[in-house]
Write a structure and sequence with these properties.
Order of helices and strands: HHHHEEHEHEE
Helix content: 25-40%
Number of strands: 5
Oligomer: single chain
Number of domains: 2
CATH architecture of the largest domain: Orthogonal Bundle
CATH class of the largest domain: Mainly Alpha
Structural class: alpha+beta
CATH superfamily of the largest domain: Nitrile hydratase, beta subunit
Largest sheet: 5 strands, antiparallel
Shape: globular
CATH topology of the largest domain: Cyclin A, domain 1
Number of helices: 6
Strand order of the largest sheet: 4-3-2-1-5
Strand content: 15-25%
Radius of gyration: 18 Å
Length: 194
C-alpha cells in the first residue's frame, strides 16, 4: 500500500463520518449491482488482485470516488483482463485456499517482539505505512495464507505462509493521546527481529 489509497494514520482528511448502527449496506441501488457483478470477476482471481486493481486508480479519481465506485473501476478492469467483455471468460475459476491453522513452526512465537519491515513495492502490499519500522509483540499465529503480493501479481493463490497477529501500543504509532492497542495480521515475510 504505497499509493494514495493508504490513508491510514494520515492527517488532514478530517474526521471519519460514522453513520447510525442501522445504516444500509448499499446507499444506492447501483452499489448492490456492483457488489453482485464483482462476484463474477472474483471467482476467477484473488482478492488481492482485485485490491491491486483498485490501487491502480488515478489518485485524484480515488480520492473523490465512493467505496463502490472504486469497486466498479476495478471490476471493469478485471472483466477486461479476464475476457468477460469479449465473450465467455478465458480465465478458469480460481479455487480459494482454506484459511487454516498451520502445522509448522514459524520464525516467531507469541510474546516475542518483532519489527515490521519497510518493503516498498510497486505491486500490492498489505502493510500500512504507519506500521512500517514499528515494533510490536506477536500475540498469536493467526493462520496460514498465501502471500498477498504474489496473489495480486499472479491472480492465483500460491503456497501459504504464516500470518501473525501483532499488537502495537497506539501511543507508539499515533502519539501520547492514543490510549488503545492496535492489532494487525501480518505475513511472516513482513516481520523481522527488532
Amino acid at each position: 500500500m504505497d499509493g494514495v489509497h493508504d490513508l491510514g494514520g494520515m492527517h488532514g482528511f478530517g474526521s471519519i463520518p460514522v453513520e447510525a448502527d442501522d445504516e444500509p449496506i448499499f446507499h444506492q441501488p447501483w452499489e448492490g449491482r456492483v457488489w453482485a457483478i464483482s462476484a463474477t470477476t472474483m471467482r476467477r482471481t484473488t482478492i488481492d488482485r482485485f485490491r491491486w486493481h483498485i490501487e491502480q486508480m488515478p489518485p485524484a479519481a480515488y480520492l473523490i470516488s465512493s467505496y463502490y465506485a472504486r469497486w466498479l473501476w476495478a471490476v471493469e478492469r478485471l472483466a477486461a483482463e479476464q475476457g468477460l467483455l469479449d465473450g465467455p471468460a478465458s480465465v478458469p475459476v480460481a479455487p480459494r485456499p482454506p484459511s487454516s491453522t498451520p502445522r509448522w513452526n514459524g520464525r516467531f512465537r507469541p510474546g516475542q517482539p518483532v519489527r515490521v519491515a519497510n518493503r516498498v513495492t510497486a505491486g500490492h502490499c498489505r502493510v500500512p505505512r504507519y506500521l512500517r519500522r514499528q515494533v510490536g509483540r506477536v500475540e498469536r499465529v493467526a493462520c496460514a495464507w498465501p502471500n498477498p503480493g504474489e496473489s495480486a501479481a499472479r491472480g492465483t493463490y500460491g503456497e501459504p505462509e504464516l500470518v501473525y497477529t501483532v499488537v502495537f501500543a497506539a501511543e507508539d504509532l499515533f502519539g501520547p493521546g492514543a490510549d488503545h492497542v492496535l492489532s494487525a495480521d501480518l505475513s511472516e515475510r513482513d516481520l523481522e527481529a527488532p
